[in-house]
Design brief:
single chain, about 120 residues, alpha+beta, HIT family, subunit A, 5-stranded antiparallel β-sheet, binds adenosine monophosphate
Length: about 120
């Protein structure tokens, strides 16, 4: 069965697509956690980073992040995040990178953990 993100890629579910090429499609997150919050999704249905094949065209995910960040005017900086599995709060099991920016993002990690 097609994943939610495959349905977006195939235009069966609407989304604001901001970038696409042969390998990836990127669209705005429906619940943005930053002024710019874009999901970059490989067209291939890989369920998560843990299932990433050992070889392939995976650099296109990061290349797309760089290009979209430029396109979105994120010269001040940005963050790229991949949530893998339950502890990371992964909710959609089709590999995706979050591109976050547009404001100072602060730290990240486990809330309450001393550094
Ligand atoms: P993750 O927790 O890493 O699996 O992230 C899944 C992300 O998908 C969340 O940030 C959701 O807000 C986002 N999301 C879920 N459904 C949609 C949708 N229909 N369009 C855009 N983003 C979505």
């Amino acid at each position: 069965m097609a994943t939610l993100f495959s349905k977006i890629i195939n235009r069966e579910i609407p989304a604001e697509i901001v970038f696409e090429n042969e390998y990836v499609v990127a669209f705005r997150d429906i619940q943005p956690q930053a002024p710019v919050h874009i999901l970059i999704v490989p067209r291939a249905e890989i369920s998560g980073l843990a299932e990433l094949p050992d070889s392939g065209d995976h650099q296109h995910l990061l290349n797309a992040a760089k290009v979209i960040a430029e396109q979105e005017g994120l010269g001040g900086g940005y963050r790229v995040v991949i949530n893998q599995g339950a502890d990371a709060g992964q909710t959609v099991f089709h590999l995706h990178a979050h591109l976050l920016g547009g404001a100072p993002l602060g730290g990240f990690g486990v809330p309450g953990l001393d550094h």
